[in-house]
Amino acid sequence: MQLVFTPEQEELREAVRRFFAAKSSSAAVRALMEDATGYDAAVWKQMATQLGVQGIAIPERFGGSGFSFVELAVVLEEAGRALLAAPLFSSAVLAAYAILDSGDEAAAGELLPGIADGTRIGTLACTEDSGQWDLGALTLPATADGAGWRLSGVKSFVVDGHAADLLVVAARTPNGLSLFAVDGSAPGLGRTALPTLDQTRKLARIVFDDVPARLVGADGGAAAALTRTLDKAVLALAAEQVGGAQRVLEMAVDYAKVRHQFGRPIGSFQAIKHKAAEMLLRVESAKAAAYYGAWAVADDSEEVPAMASLAKAYCSEAYFFAAAENIQIHGGVGFTWEHDAHLYFKRAKSSQMFLGDGTFHRERLLQRIGV
Questions:
Q1: Coil, helix or strand for 357?
Q2: What is the pLDDT of residues 222-254, one digit of tens each?
Q3: 263: which strand partners?
Q4: Cα angle, residue 215 at apex, residues 191 and 126 outer, rounded to 5°
Q5: What domains appear along the chain, each with residue ranges and CATH number?
Q6: How many CB atoms lie within 10 A of CB 117?
Q7: d(C-alpha 338, C-alpha 336), whole Å
Q8: Which CDD domains does the annotation name (predicted)?
């Protein structure tokens, strides 16, 4: 397993960072927070045509660039650093991997090229009103008719569900948990935007009223495939969290150098040094967990399930700790709406709960390592 980024991967990082610095500034992010769609269609198109990030990890035979999960993690780390407001995670991670892991070549050939070139926005509709990420808690039923399948029920907390052209839906048939592709314009499909703590990541509640759907993969065979998808998703989220954690660490250190109190920079005070040192320790440890997990996926290692839960639990707490300490180091100005510190704090908090909280993943880790 290669545990060092290659020069090409570092060049990718620099290119993506420059793009996000220009297109995902604080002003742009704040404008999109107030926008109902939550993303800039022109920037989304540029991401596809200039960088190709939507399809970076999608195989070439399905219209993507065919790079590994490590390159995708690099992109997501930079997206987290810039608080990118765009459906990148929902489309390039959740929807794309759900289709790939299903093993349905026909569905992949039809659905993935649009995701790869950015003309189709996808998402995964998994959780229901309970918000549980345990697959055993999913109850939305799918029924067969002469023309195919129909869905009736509710999915909730669906990332970018308000804007998705394609919904990959986890539902139950008499044979068990299955995956279905639903067109965003299908009759009987209702969407309601949900109020969120983190306004940079939109969530929606989706109501299915006898909605036509296409089976993806084997009837009743989605549990194992969806588990693999969610393991990759939590590692992708860990990479995003690392990017945000690194950025708030830099914000705190930069401020500690220029803010003076009692005639000296506050960074010279031991209490501030201790805070910054603890932030650095946790951020670097989070990087180690996230990077190792990304390489494990790229290497198709049997360690992926354990690393996924370990990285999600640790990176979630590291990011939240760093975001909270950033506010403390900034003092009064850090609590204001005008300062960006609260944007990262809210993303950190929402990311703690997304795809399962620390308690959920610690319990899962223990199960996976046989404790």
A1: coil
A2: 999 999 999 999 999 999 999 999 999 999 999
A3: none
A4: 45
A5: 7-116 (1.10.540.10), 122-221 (2.40.110.10), 224-368 (1.20.140.10)
A6: 17
A7: 5
A8: ACAD
Nearest to 121 by CA among 145, 148, 94, 150: 94
Q: What pTM value is reported for the model?
A: 0.95
Q: Angle formed by the axes of helices 304-330 and 358-368, to 10°? A: 150
Under a CB-based contact definition with an 8 Å cutoff, are residues 286 and 245 in contact?
A: yes
User: What is the distance between the alpha carbons of residues 46 and 52, in angstroms, rounded to a whole number?
Assistant: 8
pLDDT in tens, 124-161: 999 999 999 999 999 999 999 888 999 999 999 999 99
Hey, which bits of the chain come out as E strands? Answer: 122-125, 142-145, 148-159, 166-173, 176-183, 189-193, 203-216, 260-261, 264-265
51: which DSSP letter? I
Cα separation, 316 vs 349, in Å, equals 8
Beta bridge mates, 154? 207
Which residue has 């198109």 as its token pair?
45
Q: Identify the three-state secondary structure at position 153.
A: strand
The predicted-structure confidence for 100-123, as pLDDT tens digits, reads as follows: 999 999 999 999 999 999 999 999
Structure tokens at 300: 């198709």
